[in-house]
Design goal:
- By secondary structure, this protein is α+β, with helices and mostly antiparallel strands.
- 39% of the residues lie in helices and 24% in strands.
- The protein has 4 helices and 6 strands.
- A 6-stranded antiparallel sheet has the order 1-2-3-4-6-5.
- The model has no long low-confidence stretch (mean pLDDT 95).
């Protein structure tokens, strides 16, 4: 669901609450692990250059990790997900395994 939001805070007010809650948690983790990362809105979704983006789409909450090798490495830990080359999609946002994402961030920070 592409929006015309001009920043992430506005974006979060325009998407369903359950998805906004998960995206807010992921955003906080990104800011914790990568405090100097640039937060922008690109293609109507929150983007963190040069590393990831997230989107509330019609049927999914999608997390894009620009280094698809990380997704492959952790593929078996994303239960119930639809996984593409560089994205992880969940139809039920509450199922998104934030702990796995945090492990990926920790590994990328090192």
């Amino acid at each position: 669901m592409k929006t015309e939001a001009i920043n992430v805070d506005e974006y979060l007010t325009m998407i369903p609450e359950d998805r906004a809650q998960v995206i807010t948690k992921i955003r906080s983790m990104i800011q914790k692990y990568f405090p100097d990362i640039e937060e922008t809105m690109e293609y109507g979704m929150p983007t963190y250059k040069p590393f990831c983006a997230m989107a509330s789409q019609k049927k999914y909450l999608t997390f894009y990790l620009f280094d698809g090798r990380k997704i492959e490495k952790y593929r078996d830990r994303f239960a119930n997900a639809s996984i593409g080359r560089s994205c992880i999609r969940y139809t039920h946002p509450e199922e998104f395994p934030l702990n796995v994402l945090e492990e990926i961030f920790e590994e990328m920070k090192s």
